[in-house]
Amino acid sequence: MPSNTGHLLGGMTFAVGGVAAGYWSGFYQPDLVTAGLLVAVAIMAALFPDVDTDSHGQRLYYSMLVAADLLLIIFGQYRWAALLGLFAMFPAVGQHRGWTHTWWAMLVTPLPMLIVPSIFFGLPLRPLTPFYVAAVIGYFSHLALDRKF
Questions:
Q1: What is the pLDDT of residues 17-41, one digit of tens each?
Q2: Which of 42, 61, 87, 148 would staple 138 via disulfide (CB 3.0–4.6 Å)?
Q3: Cβ contact 92:103 at 8 Å
Q4: Which of 15, 83, 64 has the alpha carbon at shortest distance from 43?
Q5: pTM (predicted TM-score)
């Protein structure tokens, strides 16, 4: 099993490769800021399956979530901050290498990134889809490195 650093680097590699492939193929060409956000989402998703254990990856994951939540609060985005806080608690439900290490969790866990903004804020699905795909790619990198595929 790779270390948290291995999962972080794996998620980054898969994400940069995915963004580069989309850009060079002409399929999806995000601006630099969006590309950076997509890589960050993929890295977070790559760390997600192991955040239920005391580790460096867990501390990094939750430090990033706290920073994001604080920014949302500072900018008055309280509903987004509340939703982020709610979803941040999900890894605590279950045992290590339980539901978080399954192929279906790779597809289902990032779904709130599509569904919640669409239902609660009326945002269209299309601009949110790349972030869902980035999360799935990052999550897949974790499972692939753990040899779950």
A1: 999 999 999 999 999 999 999 999 9
A2: 42
A3: no
A4: 15
A5: 0.82
